[in-house]
Amino acid sequence: MNKLTILLLVCTFAFIGCGPSQTVNRVDANQQTDLSGKWNDTDARLVAEEMIPDALTKPWLNSFKNSHDNSPVLIVGRVRNESMEHIDTEVFTKEMERAFVNSGEISLVASQDERVDIRDERIDQQQWSSVETTKELAMETGADYMLIGNINSIVDEAVDRRTLAVFYTINLELVNVETNEKVWIGNKKIKKLIERRNYRG
Amino acid sequence: MQKLTNTYIHLYLPFLLVLFSGCASYSLDKAQVSLRDDFSNKNFESATAELDRSENEEIYKEKDQVLLNLERGMVNHFSGNYRESNQYFSEAELGIEDNFTRSISRGVQSMIVSDNSLVYGGEDYEDVYINVFKSLNFIHQRNYEAALVEARRITFKLEGIEARNRGLADMFAKSDSVAEAEWKPGNRVVENSALGHYLSAVLFAKTGQIDNSRIETERTFRAIDDQQKAFDFSSPPSKDIKKVQYGNEYNLLITGFSGRSPTKVQNDVRLFVGKYSTYVKLSLPSLKLYNSSVNRIEVVVNDSLTIPTFVIEEMDKVAADVYNVKEPIIYARSFTRSLIKATGSTLATKEANKQSEGLGFITWLAGVIGQEISEKADLRSWQTLPGKAHVNVAKLPPGTHNLTINYYSSQNRLLYSENQTVEIGSPNSLSLVESLYWH
Question: pTM for the full model?
Answer without folding.
Answer: 0.83
